[in-house]
Amino acid sequence: MKRWLSIILMLALSMCFVGCVFEADADIDSASDEASSENASSTVSDTTSSDEPAVDPATCTHEYEEKVTRKPRVLDVGEKTFTCKFCKTSYTEEIAKTDTIKILAVGNSLTSNATQYLWQIITSAGVPKENVVIGRLFLPGCSIAWHWSNIEDFKEDYEYSKNTNGSWLTRENFSVQAALEDEEWDYIIVQETIASVHNTGAYAKLSNLVDYLKTAKPEAELAWQLIWTYQAETVSQWCSFKTPAETKEHYGQIIGQYLTQVKTKSQIEHLIPAGTAVQNLRSSYIGDTITTDGIHVNEKHGMYITALTWYAALAGGELEAVTWLPSKYPELADDLPVIRQSVKDAMKQPFAVTQQAK
Ligand SMILES: [Zn+2]
Fold this sequence. Notes:
binds zinc ion; 11 helices; 36% helix; 3-stranded antiparallel beta sheet; 2 domains; Rossmann fold; globular; single chain; alpha/beta; 10 strands
């Protein structure tokens, strides 16, 4: 009798397990639609629920519940949806654009690469200069686990750079705590290092880190930079030779780790698909040529496309509105169409490469 009971119990448990696995897969599948669904906002509709409304909307004494269905950004309005709790009739209302964009990146050299031109790019799209602040904490090769241990120990090991007027002001011996207190940040960005994405254990402290940041700055929205993969067939002090197939596999690991380790953290509200934008551009006539040492993106195409992706994800403006070019590289104007298209495609499809014009 006891044996039968334990068999039934085991069967019930295994069915539950299958159910859990299925749900997790469904969540990953829906992830790729996330970016595109953001723009597909509904307008006024009289009957929205798939269930038959219990109350006739014509006679209902509506009582609306309000929900922010799209957060506003500095160059993009948001949206609130009001839904009647009795008959499910709903309508939407616009939320005005935000006034400021103040971004703090808690990162490493890849974060510094991607933010180098960000102030110029955002202001050139029409955001008043006094409303744009970019800050970044830099420690070479600093991983999620390392940031967390620095926070726990109040380590003042970071170089902190800030851009409020087009130039970077850099100070040494900063802690994460001091940088958080420096401004009323709108966005805080975190990311992994290029070398640790193959290691699931590298993300073990991500919950601690994002919980801490969100508690310290509850008004700030957290974002994740999807980093890029190595340049194939290069060797430097930072990177060993990798075949195109190996870099493709590494890019797949970056996406896989995001979907399983990062997307599951509800505190992280935004994705900056810089790594996919880079991969898209590499598929174009520009080729796999945009790093200086196999890892760090160059000052021309690399820093430009990564900053433009941050702009698209955080400021929410049109890519065509950005007219600024680095003064050293006026010829970059010729490549703007493919750079913009690469970013646009990465925003639409953040987890796969979109082939660009050769
Ligand atoms: Zn109603």
